[in-house]
Each structure stands twice: as structure tokens, then as C-alpha cells.
Amino acid sequence: MSYLEGHRQRLRDRFNGSVLSAFEDHEVLELLLTYAVPRKDVKPIARALLDRFGALSNVLDTPAAELAKIDGIGDSAATLLNLMPALTRRYLRVRWGHKPQLSTREDLGGSA
């Protein structure tokens, strides 16, 4: 197994044995990109995305055409990244049956 294959597998194993909150933003992007960018080191691509767009949420909200301007991001990777917010919204809608509404301090995680 090459270092690249090993790194990809270690990311997957770490995710499967942990929680996503234990990952840095660039590691989240790396893990996602391993599914859309074959046979290429995705760490520099993940870092370039964060350097350009500033935060994980900004990357995921950026139109595919803008994402594709980053070296290493093709149609598949841009589509996968754009899919994440839409998939999350759909999951939450199905899971909760409606749009979540945060109206109290407790909803927001604060104390009353």
C-alpha cells in the first residue's frame, strides 16, 4: 500500500472510529475529496480551497464553477462539495419532519 493509499485509509478509519468534530477543516475536505479525486494527494487541494475561500462552510457554499478554478478540482469534486449542504438540509428535513427552528437560548445551547 502506497503512502497515499495509506493516508486515505487512515482518514477513513479515523472517521469511522471517531467523530467529525475531532477533524480539522482541511481533514474534512481531504476525506470528502478522496471520493472524488482518485490517485492524487488531496491535502494540497483541501488547503488551497481553505486558503481561497476561508472556511469549510464557505467552500461548501461556493458554486461549482468557482470551485473548479482550484487546481485539482474537477466536475466530480465540485459536485460532491456542493452536494453536502443540500444533503444535510434534506437529511434534517426528513429526520425532523420540518425545518428546525431555534427560538430559545436552550435551543441555541445556552443556559436560561
Describe this structure as you would to a colleague:
- The protein has 112 residues and is an all-alpha fold.
- The chain has a single domain (3-96), classed as DNA polymerase, domain 1, CATH 1.10.150.
- It has six helices and no strands.
- The protein starts with a helix and ends in a 16-residue tail after the last helix.
Topology:
Blueprint: H1 3-16, H2 25-33, H3 43-53, H4 56-61, H5 64-67, H6 75-96
Helix pairs in contact: 2-3
Evaluate the radius of gyration.
16 Å
CATH class: Mainly Alpha
CATH superfamily: 5' to 3' exonuclease, C-terminal subdomain
Strand-and-helix sequence, N→C? Answer: HHHHHH
Sheet-strand content, in percent, reads under 5%
Largest sheet: none
Please name the CATH topology: DNA polymerase, domain 1
- Indicate the CATH architecture: Orthogonal Bundle
Number of strands: 0
How many distinct helices?
6
Helix content: 55-70%
Mean pLDDT: 87
How many separate structural domains? 1
Distance between the termini: 53 Å
Shape: globular
Unreliable runs, pLDDT <50, ≥5 residues? none
Helix-strand category: mainly alpha
Organism: Thiocapsa imhoffii
Protein name: DNA repair protein RadC
In short, what is this structure?
This protein has helices spanning 3-16, 25-33, 43-53, 56-61, 64-67, 75-96.
